[in-house]
Each structure stands twice: as structure tokens, then as C-alpha cells.
Amino acid sequence: MIATDSLADWLGARTDAQLVKLLRLRPDLAVPLPASMSVLAVRAQQRASVLRAADDLNTLEFAIIEALAANSDARTIGTAHTPLTRATLHAALEDRVTKTAFTAALTRLLDRALVWQTGDDLHLAPSAVEALPWPVGATTMLPDALTEPEVTAALAAAGQAERALLDKLATTGPRGRTRDAAPDAPADRPVPHLLAARLLHRIDDETVELPVTVGQVLRGEPVTDPHALAPPKPTLTKNTPAEVNAVGAGEVGELLRDCADLLDALGRLPAPALRAGGLGVRELRRLAKQTGIEEARTGLLLELLAAAKLVEKGLPEPTPELDTTDDFWAPTPAADAWLDAPPATRWVLLAQAWLDLDRMPWMIGLRDAADKPIAALSAELRIPHAVRDRHAILGLLGEYPTGTALTAPDIGKLLAWRMPRRRRHFRLDAVTATLTEAATLGLLGRGALVSAARALLHGAPTSVADAEAEMAAALPEPVDHVLVQADLTVIAPGPLVPELGARIALVADVESAGAATVYRVGDASVRRALDAGLTAAELHALFATHSRTPVPQSLTYLIDDVARRHGQLRAGMAQSFLRSDDPALLAQVLAAPVADTLALRAIAPTVAIALAPLSELLDQLRAAGFAPAGEDSAGAIVDLRPRGARIAVRPLARKPYRPSPPSDEQLELLVTELRAGERAAGARASKQVRADGTRTGTAATLALLQLAARVGRPVNIGYVDAQGVASQRVVEPVRVGNGQLDAVDPVTGTTRHFTLHRIASVALLD
Fold first, then answer.
1. Residue 702 burial (CB < 10 Å; 0-12/13-18/19+)?
2. Distance, first Cα to last Cα, the chain
3. What share of the chain is helix, strand, coil (3-state, %, to 5)?
4. Phi-psi category of residue 50: left, alpha or beta, with phi > 0 → left and psi -120 to 50 → alpha
5. Phi/psi at 52 (nearest 5 deg)?
6. Name one GO molecular function term (predicted).
7. Pairing of strands 601-604, 607-610
8. Which of 100, 191, 207 has its CA nearest to residue 199?
């Protein structure tokens, strides 16, 4: 109770700005609003609140906590406890930390009320020692275990049975019981070998313990040294900002192109969803093969598209012709607007979706607890700390100058020093995978943050617009020309303007993508363009206008040859029909085996009908070597390419609730209310209406309030608001009437109004 009283007095002496900072750092202390500093002090020492506040403490701050705890435990029974002061605490640590770093660390502990002062003496919240991420004494005793390189070398020399034993202890717990720990145990057993190599510590004849460093190396965690109170110094790699932005822009081009291909593939054939909600391995492989994208990258891009609401699970329209009524993964209508948006706008949507994604896509394909592969888009990828860890990794890179890159091991070690309670989140595989995903999205170039990513991470109201502008400046300007080669390849020396890009994609197939995209023109691609309604003359004009190189004759001949054969057969709906101005050609079709497949029947020398749908009629004839074209009722060629399925976004879909932290203005108001309650609790009453705790009549309340208003005396009123919350407040009555008390709040200087029948007690103050 003494500690609570001294903490309450110390909190009462803090400034309003310091109390606002405390409530910002520990928002759980303000809910509900404490009635006094004593209540606030009790909450500040509760175990759950202390452990929550200690999550972001660094190694130096935990060393201070350990030193204060060790001093408290060192006293003997019957002797008075002598608290440490700033000077004595710094003297105990000065050989390992500078005064500036020590002062900053102690200030952070004081700001969180994990440590407080009475005079020069420092006091520690009792539960703070339970938050230590290592055994007590680790920061004060010199380490006697093997170093990381020594552990790595010793593990390499260990046998299979010895390694299996170490792996078991690393995953289940550091201590194990065995009969081989006794000094007279057979020397050829695994445990004596490990004890001799110092990969195990002997506790007694039947107990061994895995050293902390060995366990960290086995689990892939960053190796931490609690005795080192200065942060590790990473190795920095310098790059020019222009080079970093250029590399990032190149990745963005690949990202946008691959995402467009995935949307097209899902639109043509939506992927069935698993019953658990994810995407099966077989469907993931199909999409990867169809788009030519690696499986791991396909999984990441699907997660991005789903997070950006460009892909959704549901029943698409048109419904796929499959023997199932389950849900499918397919594009949403928002995908069409996204495809038409400028590249920088499209990138910002994907990058922001990844930064706010509470999932870890790099875990796709890993084994779960049941030894089954984790599916893409499944609930198993949702990790509560994913967003926080991702921002911590990229935020660390953002602390260094533009163009500076750090290695994954250095990032893990530095973050583990800064947040030792969360060090397992920064395993080497997790940090490496996060950096790889960031590079895939174009947030990193050469391992350093690009300028657009820095703007996006800034968190300012204009950060999205700034990031979009930075990426637009980094991306190459769209070009309005191509280079046609004699081998029927078309080279785009950069991203094409939208209209030209759409035309080239229609008449040619992508052969290789990159900073310069290579297309190839063939029979099928030319026929595709003609099917879409383009004429041979328009195709000749397209290449003649936009090619910086002479159009080769081979391309001219190809277009003319395909156009001459294209459309000689005209198909329509009957179910479907087939007509040709050349009776011999139609007779050739009717004599082919495909006529039986389609159930073709001639109704005139130049017309035949089929029972098959029009799309099947065209596909079968083309597969048989013919070149039919679809036509409408006027005889004009129509574009019959599939438009792709779409899933309507459900308007009532529930978004995850993420409470926003209180603003500084709200916290200042809370502190004002707290001060008022503290003043009311400490006020001395000279006369009160309710001395025995029972409610008084309205007449007595009115009389005392009117007296206080006449003589200008403050009163302490007990008030119950409309929500039933009781509070004490010191006010200066101004007017009493019409069932209401108008009084000035001396803390804020504002006039407040109180309903008389809600006033439970009144006391005149001296």
C-alpha cells in the first residue's frame, strides 16, 4: 500500500503533458476513467497492464528493471530497504552504457510508470520483473556460454542422434531428464558428448538444460546477448537513390503485369474454393502454369488481390459449368476499374493492401500442425502480429538514409535487441521472407526502401498521394511506338500507352516480359485480332504508324494470308449456323469428321446449321483446320472473346473492427477529468448535506447549493450521470433553479450544468 501511495503522489505531481503521454503509451489505464490518482496507481501496477506495457521495451530498459529488482531482492530480513538513485544505478551500468542512452532509457520507463521516484529514490512496479525476457541475472553476469559461431561449428560436428535430441529440446523446452547426465554415464552416449561440447548444461545427475544461445540458433532466432546494453551495429550497404528507385520501378512493372494476367485467368475460369475457404494446391498450380508465374509468387499475388478486394470468394456470373455449387475465387467489378487506372495508382492500392495485411503469404505451402500444406487464401495464414512485425522491419530500414540496405540477419538482431520480448517474431526466415515480399512489390530496390515506400510508411494524411507521385516519377514514361523485327517479333522498349498496348496485346502474344516486352505475331494472334473486328487494313496501319523500324514483308504477307482465309465461313446462332459464299468449301466442311461431331446439316448450298452452341462450333472448326468467323444479324464480324467472370462485392460484408487510438485532445480531456476527481477526493468539507451516507431531501440540497452560490464558496458534489456512473467533482455554484445547477468548473474554467435530482451529496469546502 505504501508503494501505491507513493506512486499516486508521484503521478499527482506529474504535469498534464506527462499524464497524457502515459495514457497514450498505456491506453488501458484510462478505461474506464479512474476516479483518482490512487485508482490510476493501482491500475498501473496490475500484472496484465505491466506486461503489456513492457512488450516494446529494449534490452537496456530491461537491464534497468533487472538492476532495480536485484537491489530490492538483495536486502536481508529485518533491515531497511535502500532504493537505488539515478546516480547509483548509472554507476552500476556505466561501463556498458553511455549516460545519454541511460537517461533516455530511464525516461522511457518513467513515462510508462513502470518506474517512479520519491525524491531521488527509484521504485519499480512489482510485476515488471516478470516481464524480463530472460532469467534474472542475465544482464549482470558475464556470459559463459558458447558464442554464435562456436555453436554453429559445434552443431555441424554433432551426430544425427545428438542433433535430434537438441532439436527436441529446442521445440519442447530447454530442460530434459535423462540417466546419462551423471558423471559415470557411458561416454559413447549422445548426452555426454553434448555436455562435453557445451551444447548442453548439466543441472544434476538426471537433468540437463539447453543453453539459450544454442536454442536460438536451432530455432533460427536472432542470437541475443542480454549483457550487451548497446544496440548491435549492422553492416550498411550504400546505393544511389536513383538506382534503388529504378530497380523498384522494374519490379512494379512485373507486379502489375502478373496481377493483370492472374485476373484474366481467374475471369476466364474461376478457381473453386476449398470448403475451408482457401485455394487448393491443384488450382494454384493450374493458375501458375496458365500465367507462367512461379507458384510462390502466384500465391503472394492472389493474397494481394484478395486483400485489395480485386478478387473475392462467391458465386460468379456467369456461373462456371462445373458439377459443384461451392464458392469460387474470381475477380470483382473493381478489377476492371483497377486495370484501367494509371500504373502508380494501381501500385499504391496493392502496396497499401500488403502493408495492412494481417496475414503472412510466405507461409503458403508450409506444413501446419496436422502436417498438411497451408493453402493460399486460407484462414491459417492470419497472424495477429503480422502488420506490426512488417512495419517494424520496414520502419527500421526507413530510419537510415535513402539508398541504405541492411541484411536480414542484421535486421533480426537489431529488432531483437530493441524488442527482446518479441524476438521470436524476427527469425531469419521470417525477416528474409518479409524482405522478399517487399522487393516483389517494388517497396525495396537493392534491399533499400524506394522513395515511394518511404512516403507510404510516413503515415501523413498525404502519404498515399505522395507515394503515388513518387512512383509515377520513378516508373518509365509510356512509349507510343514499337520495333517490329523480321522474325515476326515486336519489341516494346518500355510500357506502352494504354490504347497501343491493348492493340498490340490483341494482335500479338507476349513472349518475354521485362523492361522491354517482346511480343510475337502468329496465325492465331492475327486471327484473334480479326475476330475482335479489326480489318487487315487496320492491322497494316497499326504497324506502319507505330513501328520505328520498317515493317517486314513477312508480317504483311502473314496478315494478308490470314485475312484472306478469315471469315470465308460465317457462323451464327441457330443453335448455330454456318454459311459460305464458296459452296465447295462448305461441302468440304460437311465431309470432314468434325461435321458429325457438331451434327452439321446443310440447308442450302451455302448454308448449314448445327446443334452445337456458336462458341463450340467455332472452336471445333478451328481445331479441324478451318478459319471461321462469327457474325451478327447484319453479317458484320463480332468479337466473341469471353469477357471473364466477375463476383459482385457483397455490400454487407463485415469489415474487421480496429479501434483507433484516442487523440491528444481526448487524452487531455481525460486528464482534466482525472484532476477534477482528484481534487474532489482531497477536498476538505466544513458542512455537508449527507453525513451518514444516506440520500438527503431536495430541500436540503437546494438550501446548501443556494448558500454556496450566495457566499461564493466551492462545493464537492457527488453526481450520478445518465449512464449511472458516479463521480465526485469540486465546482463553484453560480445559479440554482429550474431543476438545474449551473456551476463553474475551477479546473477547466467552463460553466457546467448538473441536474438537481442526480446530485447525491453536497459538501461545502473550506
1. middle
2. 29
3. 50, 15, 35
4. alpha
5. -65, -40
6. helicase activity
7. antiparallel
8. 191
Contact present, 226 and 63 (Cβ < 8 Å): yes
Supply angle C-alpha 261, 264, 269, rounded to 5. 125
Q: What is the mean pLDDT of residues 510-520?
A: 83
State which amino acid sits at residue 440.
T
Q: What gap in Å lies between CA 404 and CA 174, rounded to an integer?
A: 38
Integer Cα distance of 61 and 108 in angstroms? 8
Residue at 704: amino acid letter: L
666 pLDDT more than 70? yes
Closest CA relative to residue 570, chosen from 584, 559, 586, 558: 586
Count of beta carbons in the 10 Å neighbourhood of residue 655 = 5
Count how many residues are written for the chain: 766
- DSSP-derived secondary structure for 336-370: HHHHHS-HHHHHHHHHHHHHT--B-GGGTT-B-TT
CB 471 within 8 A of CB 249: yes
Instruction: List, for residues 535-570, the tens digit of each pLDDT value.
Output: 899 999 999 999 999 999 999 999 999 888 887 777
pLDDT of residue 645: 67
- Grid cell at residue 696: 438527503
Q: Under DSSP, is residue 285 helix (H, G, I), strand (E, B) or coil?
A: helix
Average pLDDT, the chain: 85
Q: At 655, list the grid cell.
A: 469489415
What's the sign of the alpha-carbon dihedral 754, 757, 760, 761? positive
Distances (CA, A) of 305 to 189, 299, 302, 431: 54, 10, 5, 23
Residue 593: strand, helix, or coil:
helix
Report long-range pairs for 427-430 (Cβ below 8 Å, ≥24 apart).
427/219, 427/220, 427/221, 427/222, 428/220, 428/221, 428/222, 429/220, 430/360, 430/362, 430/389
Question: pLDDT tens across 79-118, in order?
Answer: 556 788 899 998 888 888 899 999 999 999 999 999 998 8
pLDDT (average), residues 476-487: 89
